[in-house]
């Protein structure tokens, strides 16, 4: 017999809030759960795993619509196709992250150069600056 979880139990097992579970349901990322006769939501281990993968994919930068598309593929495709599609998307996101890192490193280098230039102004007397400093160092 499959163990069933109420929404609070699912949230704890998947390390998200109950609000997040409801949000995922509203957005179609998580299917409508079974319900007790009293209307309480019931989830199984597949739901726990699905919420965990949604959270992981979102954490690595995928938008909810991208995640929904990926998970939508999973309903009709073979396991191998789902794995390949997910790997493809994750590789694209990893490349985007590498590009962002390269851009941030370039920005950091520019800032360090500016810091170096401005730091030279500490010892510089404006009156004697043209004598001791090349004109390109006159930043302040």
What does the model show?
- With 140 residues, this protein is mainly α.
- Helix content is 64%, strand content 3%.
- It is built from six helices and two strands; from the N terminus they run H-H-E-E-H-H-H-H.
- It has helices at residues 7-14, 18-26, 45-59, 64-76, 79-119, 129-132; strands at 34-35, 41-42.
- A two-stranded antiparallel ribbon has the order 1-2.
- Helix 1 (7-14) packs across helix 3 (45-59).
- The chain is elongated and about 85 Å long.
Note the gap between the termini. Answer: 75 Å
* Whole-number mean pLDDT: 84
Q: Please tally the β strands and state the result.
A: 2
Query: What is the count of helical runs?
Result: 6
Q: Unreliable stretches, pLDDT < 50, 5 or more residues?
A: none
Which secondary-structure class do the elements indicate?
A: mainly alpha
Specify the biggest β-sheet.
2 strands, antiparallel
Q: What is the strand arrangement across the widest sheet? A: 1-2
Q: How helical, in percent, are the residues?
A: 55-70%
Oligomer: single chain
Shape: elongated
Using only C-alpha atoms, the radius of gyration works out to 27 Å
What share of residues are in beta strands? under 5%
Sketch the topology as an H/E string, one letter per element: HHEEHHHH
Keywords:
140 residues, mainly alpha, two-stranded antiparallel sheet, 6 helices, 2 strands, DNA-binding, coiled coil, DNA-bd_dom_put_sf, MerR family transcriptional regulator, transcription
């Amino acid at each position: 017999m499959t163990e069933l979880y109420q929404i609070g139990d699912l949230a704890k097992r998947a390390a998200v809030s109950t609000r997040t579970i409801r949000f995922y349901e509203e957005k179609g990322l998580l299917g409508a759960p079974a319900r007790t006769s009293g209307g309480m939501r019931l989830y199984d281990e597949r739901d726990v795993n699905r919420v965990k993968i949604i959270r992981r994919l979102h954490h690595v930068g995928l938008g909810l619509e991208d995640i929904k598309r990926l998970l939508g593929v999973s309903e009709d495709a073979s396991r191998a196709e789902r794995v390949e599609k997910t790997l493809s998307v994750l590789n694209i996101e990893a490349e985007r992250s590498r590009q962002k890192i390269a851009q941030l490193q370039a920005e950091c280098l520019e800032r360090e150069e500016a810091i170096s230039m401005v730091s030279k102004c500490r010892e510089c007397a404006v009156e004697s600056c043209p004598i001791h400093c090349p004109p390109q160092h006159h930043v302040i």
